Structures are given as C-alpha cells and as structure tokens.
C-alpha cells in the first residue's frame, strides 16, 4: 500500500470573493459532470517544492467539489532520489551519464510502487502522475483497469534536455493519455506528445503561505528571527539548489550594499526529502555568506515554515528570484500576490508571470543588483510595480483557475 497524504479540508465557496463569477460557475458545472470520479495523484514527497505545495490545495478542493480524490506517495529512498535528482537536472539540461545501475534503481522503485497500486485492488478513473520520479508507473501497472486514464504532469522545463535521459523516458511518457506541461516552450524537442495539454500552475491565495497577514503581525514574526524590520531587506525563497543561484543572489546583494549600506538579505529554503543536494548547497551558501551579519539563512528545520515565509514575503522591500533555470516558479506568483516589487531571472515560467510593469527581468548578477538598487531607492516605482503584479496573478495564477483547467481535462478524457 502506498502511503496516503492527508491534505486537510478546503472549500471552494471560500474563494468566491477572490475569483471571477464565471470561473466559479464553470468549476461547478464541470464538477457536476465529474461527480464521484475517482482520482489519484501520485508523487514522491509530501514536503518541499512546488508539487507538494500545489497538491495540498488541489486535492482538498477536488474533494470539496465532489470528486473522490486522493494523494499517494510512491516508494522512495536515498538511492532512488539521487537518481531522480540527476534525472531532474538532466532534463533541465545538465550533463549526466545514464548508467545501467541508475536505470535499475529507478525502475525498481517504480515497479514496487506500481505493484502496490495493483495489490491495493482499488480502481481509479484518473491516475495523475507528477514529474519524472513516478513516470514509469503506467508501464508497470498492467493490472489496473483499462478504463483508467493516465495523466503525466511535467512541472519542469525540458526544452534543452540531456538526450540520454529524454530518449529513455520519452516512450513511457508518450504512452500516457495526456501530458501536461506548464507552457509549450517547455516541451522536449522532437518528441511528439499526442495528449499534450498546457496548464500553468497556480498558488492558493487562502493558504497559510499566502493569506493576508497584517503588517504588524508580519513584522512581529520577522523580528523574532533577528531581521531588523526597520531596515530594508531583499528576500529569496527557494530550495538551496544551483539552478536557484543563491550564491549569485549573495553577489548581487554585495553590489547593492555598496550603494544601500543598510540593506539586509534573507535567504529561505526548504529541505525536501527528494533533494539530496540541498544540504551541500546550504553549506556552500553559508560559506559564501562569509559570516556577514546582515545575511540571514533560514530553512524549515530552523522553524521557518509557511506562515514565516508569508511574513517575510509580505514585508520584503524587494523579492528576488534569480533562477538560472526554473519550472514555473511558484515563489514569483506568491511574491506578486503580496504586492511585492520583484527582480527575477528571465527563465522558465517567470516571464509569463511578470507583465510589463509588474517586475524587472534580469539575466546577470550586475543587472540583478542594479534592479534591486533601483527599487530600494525609488519606493513609488516599487509600490506601483507591486500593484500591477498582484492583479496579473489574480487573473491568471490562483488555484481556482488551475482546478478548472484540470477538471476540463478530466472531463475530456472521461468523455463526460
Ligand atoms: N518554499 C517554502 N519554504 C522554503 C522554500 C520554498 O515554503 O523555505 C515553497 C515556496 O514558497 C513555493 C515552493 O516551495 O511555494 C517552491 O516552488 P517553486 O515553483 O518556486 O520552485 P520548485 O522548488 O518547485 O523548483
């Protein structure tokens, strides 16, 4: 039996005042058509990173609108996560030699997880498989009902992939009834995806991470972590990972500090179970910070969870997301939703979240530093930027829109 995650309860009615009326009605209509549909989401971890973040909202909302929806974790342990982290990096373009041993580890965890699904004797109308880790589940679950529709959801940018990993995974992925990508530009070159569906992710405006926090409460929280909220600070919230470039953020902050000496830098990152590189990169980042008293490094193991992230995001004078590669970049939507001025790498799903006037896109460390300095020195410009960004997120990147898009796909696949 695969471990189930209990994602708690949510009610679509609570979102009524935040999203447009027609979207709300459309969801109700789709939900009626799909009433009682059995949906299982599968991924490897209930903590850390964007997928878990999304499922904690999507699964309860799917239940609330009448689907029989569950979330299961595939089997995983360090050897498997070492391989799948390499796959993840390779699909984003990193060098990697796909060995027979790595394939064997990857296949074994998928085979065992698939066997557990078959042995459970349960049946599903929709099997919703997230990212490369469980991508072989369909292949190994011959015993499941032939009526089950299989969706593979890719959350990463596979447009310039390592060919070995792509060629290995493509036949399995093509075999799914639908392949969801965040944007067309992320799809792999020369791979025909018969069920390609484009659905960008979204953030939950009512989660503890994103709900409205009074400025005083946010300050009260941030002060407890030693950050001086009377002085400006730049914030990046991201896993400690080379693609998120925390070292580059520190370099940019050092340039900013020459012109704005009172500036502080806060780096917050969560340690995900399926990310063995996280600690290495945490130590590298700590070393790079070199004991600077104005640089703060936090993670979930130092008690910085969702509410604390919310508080820091709500207060930051500038939010930076200096990614070199990015999936969608949920943190960007989170910062914009809080009306924060934003400086972000021109990569992945970031540009589509940043409208004209709603953030500054950068390609290099000096550009990032110049953009932060400008925002710190011109509060009116920064304020207006935050307002634009928030409205763009309201229209496009809140959970009800994602729920509608997923339900539309379910209805299409199930012919209801
Ligand atoms: N996150 C968090 N605490 C942290 C670091 C990240 O809660 O210390 C959350 C962050 O707020 C966001 C998600 O993890 O919701 C990261 O998603 P994103 O798409 O930005 O990046 P990914 O990690 O999926 O590459």
Q: How many structural domains can be distinguished in the coordinates?
A: 2
CA-based gyration radius: 21 Å
Largest sheet: 7 strands, mixed
Overall residue-averaged pLDDT value:
95
The tally of helices reads: 15
CATH architecture descriptor of the largest domain = 3-Layer(aba) Sandwich
Sheet with the most strands: spatial strand order: 1-3-2-4-5-6-7
List all distinct small molecules, including ions and cofactors, that are bound in this structure.
uridine-5'-diphosphate
Main CATH class of the largest domain: Alpha Beta
Q: Would you write up a description of this structure?
A:
- This protein has 416 residues and is an alpha/beta fold.
- The protein has two domains: 3-202 and 398-414, Rossmann fold; 215-396, Rossmann fold (3-Layer(aba) Sandwich), CATH 3.40.50.2000.
- The chain has helices at 21-33, 50-64, 78-91, 100-119, 137-140, 163-174, 215-224, 246-259, 278-289, 306-315, 330-337, 350-353, 365-377, 379-396, 399-414, and strands at residues 3-4, 38-43, 68-73, 126-130, 149-154, 178-181, 196-198, 233-237, 264-269, 295-299, 318-321, 342-345, 360-362.
- A seven-stranded mixed β-sheet has the order 1-3-2-4-5-6-7, with helices on one face.
- Helix 3 (78-91) crosses helix 4, helix 7 (215-224) crosses helix 10 and helix 11 (330-337) packs across helix 14.
- The protein starts with a strand and ends with a helix.
- Residues 49-50, 53, 209, 237-239, 268-270, 299-300, 306, 309, 327-331, 334 line the site of uridine-5'-diphosphate.
């Amino acid at each position: 039996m695969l471990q189930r995650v209990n994602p708690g309860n949510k009610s679509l009615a609570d979102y009524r005042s935040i999203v447009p009326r027609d979207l709300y009605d459309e969801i109700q209509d789709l939900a009626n058509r799909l009433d009682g549909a059995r949906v299982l989401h599968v991924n490897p971890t209930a903590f850390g990173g964007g997928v878990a973040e999304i499922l904690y909202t999507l699964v309860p909302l799917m239940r609330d609108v009448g689907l029989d929806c569950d979330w299961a974790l595939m089997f995983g342990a360090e050897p498997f996560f070492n391989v799948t982290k390499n796959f993840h990096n390779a699909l984003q373009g990193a060098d990697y030699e796909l060995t027979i041993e790595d394939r064997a580890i990857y296949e074994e965890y998928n085979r065992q997880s698939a066997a557990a699904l078959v042995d459970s004797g349960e049946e599903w109308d929709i099997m919703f498989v997230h990212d490369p880790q469980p991508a072989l589940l369909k292949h190994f679950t011959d015993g499941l009902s032939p009526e089950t529709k299989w969706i593979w959801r890719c959350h990463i940018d596979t447009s310039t992939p390592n060919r070995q990993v792509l060629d290995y995974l493509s036949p399995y992925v093509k075999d799914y009834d639908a392949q969801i990508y965040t944007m067309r530009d992320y799809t792999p070159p020369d791979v025909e995806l018969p069920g390609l569906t484009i659905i960008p992710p979204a953030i939950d405006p009512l989660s503890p991470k994103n709900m409205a926090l009074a400025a005083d409460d946010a300050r009260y929280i941030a002060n407890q972590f030693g950050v001086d909220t009377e002085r400006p600070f730049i914030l990046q919230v991201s896993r400690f990972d080379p693609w998120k470039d925390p070292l580059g953020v520190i370099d940019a902050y050092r340039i900013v500090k020459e012109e704005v000496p009172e500036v502080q830098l806060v780096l917050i990152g969560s340690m995900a179970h399926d990310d063995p590189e996280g600690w290495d990169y945490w130590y590298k980042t700590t070393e790079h910070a070199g004991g600077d008293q104005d640089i703060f490094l936090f993670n979930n193991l130092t008690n910085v969870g969702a509410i604390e992230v919310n508080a820091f995001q709500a207060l930051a004078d500038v939010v930076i997301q200096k990614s070199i590669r990015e999936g969608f970049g949920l943190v960007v939507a989170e910062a914009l939703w809080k009306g924060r001025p934003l400086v972000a790498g021109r990569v992945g799903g970031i540009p589509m979240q940043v409208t004209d006037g709603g953030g500054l896109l950068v390609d290099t460390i000096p550009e990032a530093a110049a953009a932060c300095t400008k925002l710190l020195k011109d509060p009116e410009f920064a304020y207006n930027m935050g307002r634009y960004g928030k409205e763009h997120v309201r229209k496009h990147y809140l959970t009800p829109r994602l729920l509608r898009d997923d339900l539309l796909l379910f209805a299409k696949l199930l012919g209801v």
